[in-house]
Amino acid sequence: MLAALMTELGQDKLEIRDDVETIGFGPGKVRVAIKATGLCQSDLSGMKGIIPNATPMVLGHEGAGEVLEVGEGVTHVKPGDRVIVNWRPACGQCEHCHRGESNLCMAGVAAVGIPAFRSRGTDFYRFMGAGTFAEEVVLEAGFAAPFPDDVSYEAAALIGCGVTTGLGAAINSCDVKPGETVAVIGCGGVGISAVMGAEAAGAAHVVAIDPVAGRRRWALEFGATAAVAPDELADAVRDFTGGLGFDHVIEAVGRPATVRSAYEAARRGGTVCLVGVGGAQDMMPVNLLELFASAKRIVPSIYGGDDVTRTYGRIINLIRSGRIDLESLVTHRLPLADVNQAIDLMRSGESLRVMLTHD
Description:
Blueprint: E1 3-6, E2 15-17, E3 21-22, E4 29-38, H1 41-48, E5 57-58, E6 62-70, E7 82-85, H2 95-98, E8 117-119, E9 122-126, E10 136-140, E11 144-146, H3 153-159, H4 162-173, E12 181-185, H5 189-200, E13 205-209, H6 213-221, E14 226-228, H7 233-241, E15 246-251, H8 256-265, E16 266-274, H9 288-294, E17 297-300, H10 308-320, E18 330-335, H11 339-348, E19 353-357
Helix pairs in contact: 4-5, 4-10
């Protein structure tokens, strides 16, 4: 079968091979034909080693597909079911799961160290336990979350990462209330999803901040009331909050400079929500005195900041009600074999979301 392989860290291009096979199927496993998978900035972080993973590996983690086969003991899905690849599955037994924080459950982390592909005598791992840049993948059962027939594979793939992460940050981690003000720094797929979440929650103003003019235009299309360049953020604080600062600022970049901008743009007592993934060497640019005096809440948000399947359900309800249209987030559609072109589109900022199809 066809798959996109990363043989070593630091590669600019993935190697496309058609002689890859899945391995490891057995009890407690599910074999899935990937129908759609989106590109996410986290995939670039995986290529650079910012997000650690066993290598060599198959990248991709934002996907959806059809169940081909289930192993012994798997009862929640059957062949023919449509599933989202949930890279943060819940064990249902740990303290986080008992508290309704399945997005913090660590049960799925071990999957990054389990070989799932083989090519030319070499075993390959799955990025974030998913590995969706392949025509098929063998997953631990918890990674396969069923979704209804009236949701498309493309929408389901986006729910698998970017939309859940961004929209969930607004409605769960920030708990945006009607009439509040929200700023979103970074308007890629995750940031735009945060814009959609803030708009759906009833924010009075949703201001998008991004240096790329095209992304600012997309933000306006998806619910932002204004979109400005980074050097206009101080003016936006004045114009939309009277200089007080935003109730919530969602940072979807993962760099110290943008975290600092988010902190400064939040009002005293407001929320600074960190969604972007930075590196281990990136330090929080906030001193303890201002942290105490400003009483601003710094809230990291992992995969939507709440029980993952609960957030999936909320997003599906928003789709059904016509409040959000996820397919319109996709600006480019390419076959899996053109994944390197898709990566270039994402790096350049020309795309909002690139969807790879496997049919």
